[in-house]
Design brief:
The protein is α+β, with helices and mostly antiparallel strands and about 210 residues long.
Amino acid sequence: TKQTVPLQSMAMLCAPRNAGQVIVAASTTLIVGGVLTYVMSQHGRATNDLFGAASPAQANTKELIQPKAFGSCANPVGELKWTADRSTANHICCHNRDYAEYYGYWQQTTFPRVLTDGETITFYDSVSGVPLFVAPRGRSYAQFYSESRRHGWPSFRDEEVVARNVFELADGEIVSVNGTHLGHNLPDGRNRFCINLVCVAGMEPMQGHARMDR
């Protein structure tokens, strides 16, 4: 039996603290691959230096979400970490601009609850394998985990973004350089990237491939 969490409850928990920055204009729920998802049809926009002129593909963001062989992706998702569901990932990451995995889904996976001090996790695109986020940075893992648990989705800050591979569209949607839908920017006074775990649970590229997470 799956618990249905109303859209308003999800929006309040994963919304920015400043009123008016996120506008929820729909209350649709959808079951995809056995996972409850939600739709938010309009989001506030915030600026972020990491997504500015220094990001080489920023001027071509429309190309990122153009139809490809598999929705907005070149191909389906690959093998995923943390027991993330591939069917859900294929829908949310490649055939979707608005929906999300259900509130708290990431905590139902094997995602680690504790890390050794100083250790970080690199989050890879579930489709292409490029690095997208490295966390924690600028805070402890306990702080990262607590904030993510409070909002219901993994929540990243500017310091944790691999800027060359992550882009923000005009409506606040966050996508990878390969067109994978990741989530949305829901600021709470500063940028907070509310991200679907199924879209950043890709496996680390094979050894010998160039690392791009620094």
